[in-house]
Amino acid sequence: MSETDTLLARRAVGAQSSAVRELLKYSRTPGIISLAGGIPAPDLFDIQGLEAALGEELRARTRDTFQYGMTEGEAGLRDQIATLAGKRGLHAGAHNVLVTTGSQQALDLVARVFLNPEDTIVVERPAYLAALQAFAFSEARMLSVPSGADGIDLDRVEALFASERVKAIYVVPNFANPSGGTLTLDRRRRLVELAARHRVLIFEDDPYGDLRLRGRALPSLFEIAGQTPGARDLVVYMSTFSKILSPGLRMGWMVIPDAYYSNVAIAKQAIDLHSCTLSQRIVERYLASGRLGERLPILRDAYAVRCEALCSSLERHLGDAIEFNRPDGGMFLWARFRDDVDASAVLARAIEAGVVFVPGSAFFVDEPQRNTLRLSYSTITPETADEAGRRLAIALEESVG
Amino acid sequence: MSETDTLLARRAVGAQSSAVRELLKYSRTPGIISLAGGIPAPDLFDIQGLEAALGEELRARTRDTFQYGMTEGEAGLRDQIATLAGKRGLHAGAHNVLVTTGSQQALDLVARVFLNPEDTIVVERPAYLAALQAFAFSEARMLSVPSGADGIDLDRVEALFASERVKAIYVVPNFANPSGGTLTLDRRRRLVELAARHRVLIFEDDPYGDLRLRGRALPSLFEIAGQTPGARDLVVYMSTFSKILSPGLRMGWMVIPDAYYSNVAIAKQAIDLHSCTLSQRIVERYLASGRLGERLPILRDAYAVRCEALCSSLERHLGDAIEFNRPDGGMFLWARFRDDVDASAVLARAIEAGVVFVPGSAFFVDEPQRNTLRLSYSTITPETADEAGRRLAIALEESVG
């Protein structure tokens, strides 16, 4: 584990973010297969369901649809979200739910409300870049701990909690972006116990939890904290409708313990007053329609097929030259070239060969593993998956040859 | 003018904000006439136009409507906004336009990007409370300068620019909330010249400019800066569709000089990635339809009638007991009880009598004028205006009697 100078990290995160943005342009370049995006598959959007919800709202003919709303979110939507959270095992009332402008805003809110300059926050290595961007704005000190297929390394976390005064830890327990890793049940319990012992806040970010492709769902850190003495108020849970319904609506949500709720709501008021009323009404009606329950299996099946297609293509075309773990869910495959091949160098060849990915080094604030890469399977087909593997093999061969 | 301790200001702003939020609940209480809101009249929403834009967007059947979008905003909307800005005399390209999640986000963005702790920002006294909230988060030092019917006092501003190292000044030049004041043309020119001489940034907030009820539009500070040597890059312009189309869509916008554009866009990326795609497409199609040009005169005429109704009701029922200036536009009347009557004390009686307003003291970070009050005429009718004046007179009489 290593300490990161805040300003350097901020600059690095900014530069990496620009680099990733730059890569996104290839997602619309004809002839290029993009494994670089982090976007949900548009062909899986439930357009019919979204239009039905929208039509219902318009037929209700309430001018409130277009009027200012409450900072905390529309009451009906907060009720629906509390129900959804309950299905995930989070027992909290609607009064603990805050609607956010995407889960990016939830990250910004926790950074603003809880992190002061000089505070210390522990993050995973690698970690979700946009979360690091939000934290960097607070000028908090970020300490990174390695995280793999089983989630963050708890021995390192324990040592850090014991040796440093840590304010918060940020984890994506389910199918993390970019690592694809899932925090095991044992580690979840241990993390909550450690947090309780050292009074460390846990920022639990769960955008992908409903996209489990195999195995059984694990309890959230929020749920475990509710059963752990001294931990009840320590977890702030964040999620979103971006991966399971529509990212364009910018609908995220948080479950916030009573003790902090009003502070977070007051911060949101200063940030954007409230989130789009129309989006909120659409999501509220969509959830009330019960369609999400029918839709999730469709999404899971489709992503499972795409994940498998990419995995088998990589095995077929790259064989021993690459290694990766099959993720239990989500949208990302975290892979590693053998022999310490620099993924950024391969990327240059890959673009020529007609395939793009994100070099893993973009997801480290420090000590980057240069042979890693993040591959998204969310928008591929069996054909493009095969072709992507073939092109990647060509790029790798040209790069090392 | 006076200096404000940042932490005290932050606490005060928070408390005032909660007090104003508390008052808003009366806007839906049966039997109470609310002059407290800052909301546009829902009966004036162009529902037909909004639905037409929405219908067009859905018929276009592009899944991009629900997908992630660019942080800067949808390209088509940025073009439309550049055209709208041009009509207001702001000559800037679409590449200078940033779409924001309401203009509250624009305020948050300028605070985040330009203000560091210990920086000094000059604000009007009284000032828009939510702007002060956004600035308070930056922990910048806020210095307030009196502002009246003709806008901010430029002699005081000049003295301050000369004696302090000022980073930025925040002004609402047209029909400010809460003062209703409009910065005169001479003062606009002088403010830009002063800013150029002392290299002070101007945050120009213009939510109400299109709601001019009488007289001719004055050039924006942004436009004047474009013609003033050394001032070209000093003005960041902010506006919104909240007052002229729909606040619920959360669509604000900024025109940002080239020198700062990418810094602001990167900050927005960390804050909420991008604003609601659906809202953007609705506004884009609405602007493309040309309906706004037909709508604005309808809004202006309606607000002019409401403004006059409130003014004459106050004159009729309160006579000499209250004084105010007729605003040239916007939605607010700034009034003052004679004889230093405390508006907060009157409010308590007013609620009993069935009318609410916001005591003016809520809009001061320091040196509050306790006899002031803000009255919104946006949602009243001739009948409720008359009754509001009658009730206010009763409340005042009971309060002083």
Automatic annotation (TrEMBL), chains A, B:
<dbReference type="GO" id="GO:0008483">
    <property type="term" value="F:transaminase activity"/>
</dbReference>
<dbReference type="InterPro" id="IPR015424">
    <property type="entry name" value="PyrdxlP-dep_Trfase"/>
</dbReference>
<comment type="subunit">
    <text>Homodimer.</text>
</comment>
<dbReference type="GO" id="GO:1901605">
    <property type="term" value="P:alpha-amino acid metabolic process"/>
</dbReference>
<dbReference type="Pfam" id="PF00155">
    <property type="entry name" value="Aminotran_1_2"/>
</dbReference>
<keyword id="KW-0032">Aminotransferase</keyword>
<dbReference type="GO" id="GO:0030170">
    <property type="term" value="F:pyridoxal phosphate binding"/>
</dbReference>
<dbReference type="InterPro" id="IPR015421">
    <property type="entry name" value="PyrdxlP-dep_Trfase_major"/>
</dbReference>
<dbReference type="InterPro" id="IPR015422">
    <property type="entry name" value="PyrdxlP-dep_Trfase_small"/>
</dbReference>
<keyword id="KW-0663">Pyridoxal phosphate</keyword>
<comment type="similarity">
    <text>Belongs to the class-I pyridoxal-phosphate-dependent aminotransferase family.</text>
</comment>
<protein>
    <submittedName>
        <fullName>PLP-dependent aminotransferase family protein</fullName>
    </submittedName>
</protein>
<dbReference type="InterPro" id="IPR004839">
    <property type="entry name" value="Aminotransferase_I/II_large"/>
</dbReference>
<feature type="domain" description="Aminotransferase class I/classII large">
    <location>
        <begin position="51"/>
        <end position="391"/>
    </location>
</feature>
<keyword id="KW-0808">Transferase</keyword>
<dbReference type="InterPro" id="IPR050859">
    <property type="entry name" value="Class-I_PLP-dep_aminotransf"/>
</dbReference>
